Amino acid sequence: MEKFSEPPKHVILRLYHSPLAYLLGWIILLLTTRGRKSGLPRITPLQYEKIDEDYYLGSARGMQADWVRNILAYPEVELQVKRTKILGMAEIVADPLRIADFLEYRLKKHPAMVGRILEMDGLSRHPSREELDAYAAKLALVIVHPKN
Q1: What are phi and psi of 25, to 5 degrees?
Q2: Which residues contact 17 (CB under 8 A, 6 or more apart)?
Q3: What is the dihedral angle through the alpha carbons of 11, 14, 20, 25, rounded to the nearest 10 degrees?
Q4: What range does the domain containing 109 cover?
Q5: Is residue 124 part of a domain?
Q6: What does the pLDDT read at residue 20?
Q7: Which of 14, 56, 90, 133 has the smallest count of CB within 10 Å of its CB?
Q8: CA-CA distance, 103 to 129, in Å (whole number)?
Q9: In this structure, are residues 68 and 62 in contact, taking their beta carbons and an 8 Å threshold?
Q10: What residues does 89 pair with on adjacent strands?
Q11: Number of domains within the chain
C-alpha cells in the first residue's frame, strides 16, 4: 500500500496565515518550540484535540520527533490555534495505555479520518484495543497545559 505523504510544512504554514486559517485551525494548530541545540523558535503544524482546557498532540514518530525532543529540553511552548496564541507547559506522555486511550477517543470523534490514518500505518480501519495498545507503544503523546 502506498504511504500517505503530508503536504510540505511550508505549504501548511502559508495556508495557516491565509483566510483559510479558520477552517484549517479546526484540526491543525501551530506548535512553537525552542530548538534544543540552537535555542531558536521552531514551528510545527500538528493535528490536535482540545479536551477540557488542554491541547493533545500525538507524535507518530514517538520520542524521536524533533518537536518532542525540543520539548524535553524546553517544555514551555506556544500554540497558535486559528488566530489565537496560547502559552503553555508541555507534558510528554509515553505510557502506551494512555496513548491508546487517546487513540480510541480520536477514533470515536473522527472515525473516517483517524481510521484511514491508522489503516495507512498498517492497522485495520477499526482496530481492536489490543491493536491500539501495541501500536501506541511506538508513539508519544504531548499534552499542553495553557498558562493562566
Answers
A1: -65, -10
A2: none
A3: 80
A4: 9-146
A5: yes
A6: 67
A7: 14
A8: 10
A9: yes
A10: 76, 145
A11: 1
Describe the crossing of helices 111-120 and 96-109 by its angle, rounded to 10 degrees. Answer: 130
CA nearest neighbour of 107 among 124, 90, 122, 84: 124
Helices assigned H by DSSP within 6-146: 9-16, 21-24, 66-73, 96-109, 111-120, 129-136
Q: Name the burial class of residue 57, with classes exposed (0-12), middle (13-18) and buried (19+) by CB atoms within 10 angstroms of its CB.
A: buried
CATH of the domain at 91: 2.30.110.10
As a whole number, the mean pLDDT across the chain is 88
Q: What is the pTM of this model?
A: 0.85
Instruction: Give percent helix, percent strand, percent coil of the chain, each to the nearest 5.
Output: 35, 30, 30
The reply to whether 24 falls in a domain is yes
CA separation for the pair 105, 107 (Å, rounded): 5
Angle at which helix 129-136 crosses helix 96-109, to 10 degrees, equals 120
pLDDT band of 148, cuts 50, 70, 90 = confident
